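sorry for the late reply, my laptop died twice this morning and i had to redo everyting from scratch. anyway the thing you sent over, i finally got around to it. pasting the sequence first so we're on the same page, its 102 residues, then the predicted structure underneath. double check i copied it right bc i was rushing
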Amino acid sequence: MHKFVLIFILFFSVTAKTQVGYFMLGYGGNVTNVDRISEVVNNYNETRPWLDKEMKPFSYLDGVVITFGGVIDHVWAETEYGFRSQKNSASGTDLYGYFNTQ
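ok and here's the structure:
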């Protein structure tokens, strides 16, 4: 079934002679390699030994994805923008007795 759909899409993109545009809104996620950001997070945790809850390293990013595309004169073009992100926090009482949330 998947092969049929792929062949249909490829055939349609080659034979299309009119302008066809589309808009997609979805949700996506991906696992990324963020070693440099992890170094910053580790440095942050090491320089604040008073943290009760340390900041966790970043890994999985997910969020809303918006895609625009179209077919014009045998050319299929598409652009996508992903609002993928991840939030982490740390908290603890510092040496002066102040509770900090970062």
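The first strand starts at residue 20 and ends at 31.
thats about all i looked at so far, will dig more tmrw
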